[in-house]
């Protein structure tokens, strides 16, 4: 299990929202410092990585986004087009890791310094669809449920291509990234599984609780 590439984004025009996005992330050589950026609005956990939509992205609970190279390859075959590492806006492209079945709260030791904790899945948005330019992309991405995972920074450190990934801790509740994604998208009957998982960010637990209460009403 390792980091296939470390990807950094710069602001580029896109036909959505404010007109700019940092989703276009490119692999870089050398080490990048990763640290807790602060609350929502404070940007990415990777120094030098740009986020344009600070209202909806970045901050401590979305400090780092990881996506599996194996899943990119599946999409590449399906779409019939090249999808180099960073295409989905991921900071870390992984190899040999089943990112979608990582447990919420699971901790990854990456290299000698960095310790990350799984927080939530990525939910697709119009910017993502506009960037890829694939018709019906949000619906397709949602149906396949290969969302990748966001992480918070537990211990800051540098990350570089080829760093080993070791699962340092795995909570016993069993709630994984894919299940949370399905609960918030196609399978609301799964929402009750989310409300008492303390490792899920408070915003996600509260949203799940409100939806469960609405359904009961």
**Rounded average pLDDT:** 92
CATH architecture: Beta Barrel
The CATH homologous superfamily name equals PK beta-barrel domain-like
Count all strands and give the number.
12
The ordered string of helix (H) and strand (E) elements is EEEEEEHEEEHHEEEHH
Global shape: globular
CATH topology: M1 Pyruvate Kinase, Domain 3
Give the strand content: 15-25%
Specify the structural class.
alpha+beta
Which descriptors would you attach to this protein?
217 residues; alpha+beta; M1 Pyruvate Kinase, Domain 3; two-stranded antiparallel sheet; 5 helices; globular
Can you lay out the helices and strands and say which pair or pack?
Layout: E1 2-9, E2 12-13, E3 20-21, E4 25-27, E5 32-34, E6 64-68, H1 69-79, E7 92-95, E8 107-110, E9 114-121, H2 126-132, H3 137-144, E10 149-155, E11 157-159, E12 165-169, H4 177-184, H5 202-216
Parallel strand pairs: 6-7
Antiparallel strand pairs: 1-4, 1-7, 2-3, 5-11, 6-10, 8-9, 8-12, 9-10
Describe this structure in words.
This protein has 217 residues and is α+β, with helices and mostly antiparallel strands. It has a single domain, classed as M1 Pyruvate Kinase, Domain 3 (Beta Barrel). The chain is 23% helix and 25% strand. The protein is built from five helices and twelve strands. The chain has helices at residues 69-79, 126-132, 137-144, 177-184, 202-216, and strands spanning 2-9, 12-13, 20-21, 25-27, 32-34, 64-68, 92-95, 107-110, 114-121, 149-155, 157-159, 165-169.
């Amino acid at each position: 299990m390792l980091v296939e590439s470390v990807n950094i984004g710069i602001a580029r025009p896109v036909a959505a929202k404010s007109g700019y996005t940092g989703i276009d992330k490119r692999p870089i050589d050398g080490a990048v410092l990763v640290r807790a950026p602060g609350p929502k609005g404070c940007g990415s956990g990777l120094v030098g990585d740009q986020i344009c939509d600070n209202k909806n992205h970045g901050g401590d609970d979305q400090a780092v986004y990881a996506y599996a190279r194996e899943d990119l390859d599946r999409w590449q075959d399906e779409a019939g087009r090249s999808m180099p590492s960073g295409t989905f806006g991921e900071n870390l492209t992984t190899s040999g890791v089943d990112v979608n079945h990582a447990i919420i709260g699971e901790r990854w030791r990456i290299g000698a310094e960095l310790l990350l904790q799984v927080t939530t899945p990525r939910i697709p948005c119009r910017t993502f669809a506009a960037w890829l330019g694939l018709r019906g992309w949000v619906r397709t991405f949602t149906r396949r449920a290969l969302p990748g995972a966001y992480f918070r920074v537990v211990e800051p450190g540098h990350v570089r291509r080829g760093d080993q990934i070791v699962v340092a801790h795995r909570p016993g509740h069993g709630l994984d990234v894919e299940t949370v994604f399905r609960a918030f998208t196609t399978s609301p009957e799964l929402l009750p599984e989310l409300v008492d998982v303390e490792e899920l960010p408070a915003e996600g637990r509260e949203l799940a609780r409100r939806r469960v209460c609405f359904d009961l009403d």
